[in-house]
Amino acid sequence: MTARILIIAGSDSGGGAGIQADIKTVTMLGGHAMTAVTAVTAQNTLGVDAVHVIPTKMVVAQIDAVVRDIGVDAVKIGMIGTAQTANAVADYLKRLTVPIVFDPVMIATSGASLADEQTISAFERLMAIASLVTPNLPELEALGGTKPILAHGCHLLVKGGHGEGDDIVDRLMSPRGQVREWHGERIDTTQTHGTGCTLASAIACGLGQGLAIDLAIERAIAFVRLALIEAPGLGAGHGPMGQQNVLDFR
Fold this sequence. Notes:
The chain is built from 8 helices and 9 strands. Strand 8 (167-174) and strand 9 form a beta hairpin. The longest helix has 17 residues, at 213-229. It has a 9-stranded mixed beta sheet with strand order 3-2-1-4-5-6-7-8-9, sandwiched between helices. It is globular. By secondary structure, the chain is of the alpha/beta class. The model has no long low-confidence stretch (mean pLDDT 93).
């Protein structure tokens, strides 16, 4: 049976990140992508021009509609919109018994803020229901480091892409300590818009397909690296990745 992946995130009009990157990723990995849009953004490779937040009731209605009819095998949470929506989503999802990957989106690749202080505070509720949290290094620092996140009982993937040097190290942590780490040579490219979204969705798809968490992460990292290499080179800024060009990866 095709894995049903529910994506709760914002829309990117430029097609590089957010819902658009998530759908492409899940589709290329053989899953069925379903969405609950939390915000509509006007953006391109140069930055975010405007953000329109979707009302909380509509976000929850989207989630409930697909859960009641189609069902869900895994959930990916990205840009959440508001603190009210974060709390409402946590209240709904805590009833489900499926893997939940939470990517705590705070700042776009262009540098635009995508979450205010109240929303970031509400991330506590989402971390409490998550199976895995996937912050980049600045997001990890904003959330207080590894200990506060692991205190929620979830796994933590410390992503090394924002670190220094040519060797990128991604570390999977559990409340009992480090589980595994992956090393990869940095790919010299500006076509990086949507890397975090793509990685989290690829992991959620793997978990929904029954992969162990370390194997789901390993496949997701490999997919991201290939999508970076296959980027189409669009736009004048941080361009979109080439998820649609990564073939035979199921």
